[in-house]
Amino acid sequence: MLVAALALALFATPPQQTAGWGEWEWENGVGMLSAHHFRNGTGFPSGYELENGTRPGSFHHLIFGTRRGSAYFWDNGLEPGSAYFWRNGVEPGSQYYWRNGQHCLSDYGWRNGAICDGQQILTFQSLCVAEAIDIAPCRAINARLEAWLERSPGLSTGDMSAPITRMREAID
Question: Is the pLDDT of residue 111 over 90?
Answer without folding.
Answer: yes
